[in-house]
Write a structure and sequence with these properties.
Elements lengths: L1 E4 H6 L1 H11 L2 E4 L5 E4 L20 H13 L1
Parallel strand pairs: 1-2
Antiparallel strand pairs: 2-3
């Protein structure tokens, strides 16, 4: 695990964030000895958030087929 001083982290924040992304987390140490953890946050996504499938039909055609099937 990488440990940065506060000054190093402040001057190279982009590099610190890249390192945290790669390693999972990094520590930042203040002059008084306090340690802080920087780690990437996992994206929260819905299980219903799935990519669409290109079927070559317009929304109107799809709605028309659904209405037709409900009438049966």
């Amino acid at each position: 695990m990488q440990i940065y001083t506060y000054t190093q982290a402040e001057k190279n924040l982009s590099s610190v964030l890249d390192c945290a992304k790669k390693a999972g987390e990094v520590l930042v140490k203040r002059q008084n000895g306090e340690l802080f953890v920087i780690k990437p946050q996992k994206r929260k996504s819905s299980p219903l958030d799935v990519p669409g499938i290109p079927i070559g039909m317009s929304a109107e055609e799809i709605v028309s087929f659904i209405r037709e099937s409900r009438e049966r």
